[in-house]
Amino acid sequence: MNSSAKMFLLAVEEMNFTKAACRAFITQQCLSAHIKKLEEEYGIKLFERTPKLRLTPAGESLYYSLRQIQIVEAAMIEKLSDIKAGMRGEIIFGINATRARIILPDFFTEYHQRFPLVKLSIILDDMRNLVPKLLNGKIDMFLGIDCISSNDFNILPLGRDEILFIATETILQKFAVSADIYKQTIASDEINLLNFPGLPFAGNYDGSSFNNLVKKYLDSLNIQQKIVFSVSDYELQISLCARNLLVAFCPKTVLNKVIEQNNKNVYDKPLRIFKLNGLKDSLRIDLITHKNAYQPHFVKEFVKLLQEHVQKYDQLIAGYTGLKASNSCSRAQCTTYTQAGHPHGAAQEQLTLKTGCKAEDCK
């Protein structure tokens, strides 16, 4: 807003040119010159000066319009100040759908409390589709797995992800080479797939980092994977496995979805979690940003907080693997994982995953 418009607003507020001039630290003649300049610019009379100073209809219209401009300008200045300080803006973030449902609710709650003026837009897609989106400027960053190094990207490793195997005891019993092998396996936390030929698998799309590592592992065992259902949504895979229809390889980061499925207690047997015999490799969880992109403060804090949440989640589910499974639950086993909620003080959701027991088995 120019100086003449500001002087006009002061004159209207005071309805006295002398007082308005004093507020603006200028002479009355200077203020009158500003008003005259506006009247000449718009070709209208803004004030009636006799018998007392008052606005003309045109002056009232201009005053209303300038007040709206003043409000918008003040908001714009505040917004630009926030942007300059790194407090306002938008982040377009790409992530796999299942990981989004696991990571983002708690993450967004904390981030939004810190940066309420930042808009977060989520693009749910697989990494093969997110890479060109980042290159083309359609997204600001994405969460990927074992992303290949590129001159255009900055890759920040956030953690590691193990590959595990999920299945019900029912389907394992059906495909086991012998009853003894079946009993040995379900009494363990590890499975040798050579002892279960012909298993029907749920699988991801070809070419994913997850699939590539699975294929490498199966090739080392000379196993031909029989995929009968292919989808990149782990929740759907888990649901079908719980129905005794399929088995699947499962990233450690989505194990809480297995817990949720087991807690529904809809089917006869809970899903079991097994480590894979001989598998030493794991996947790297990466946050990928464009190397040439400017990162304001709110983006840098987004990256920092996301890294913290991924690490916290990894620690949270670390106890869900590596425990010896069994078919039944004794009071001694339950008290090993003492938490409120289980008949013996252990959380049923943990026991369902770790030992395969149900609360009623422990009564």
Key words describing this protein structure:
13 strands, Arc Repressor Mutant, subunit A, 3 domains, disordered C terminus, five-stranded mixed β-sheet, single chain, alpha/beta, D-Maltodextrin-Binding Protein, domain 2, 19% strand, six-stranded mixed β-sheet, 363 residues
**Computed CA radius of gyration, to the nearest angstrom:** 33 Å
Principal-axis shape equals rod-shaped
Roughly what is the average pLDDT, rounded to an integer? 84
Count of strand segments:
13
Q: Topology as H/E string?
A: HHHEEHEHEHEEEHHEEHEHEHEEHHH
Uncertain runs: 321-363
CATH topology of the largest domain: D-Maltodextrin-Binding Protein, domain 2
Helix count, DSSP H or I runs of 4 or more residues: 14
What class, by secondary structure content? alpha/beta
Q: How would you characterize the largest beta sheet?
A: 6 strands, mixed
What is the CATH class name of the largest domain? Alpha Beta
CATH architecture designation of the largest domain: 3-Layer(aba) Sandwich
Q: Give the helix proportion (percent range).
A: 40-55%
Q: Number of domains in the coordinates?
A: 3
What portion of residues belong to β-strands?
A: 15-25%
End-to-end C-alpha gap: 77 Å
Strand order, main sheet: write it out: 8-12-7-11-9-10
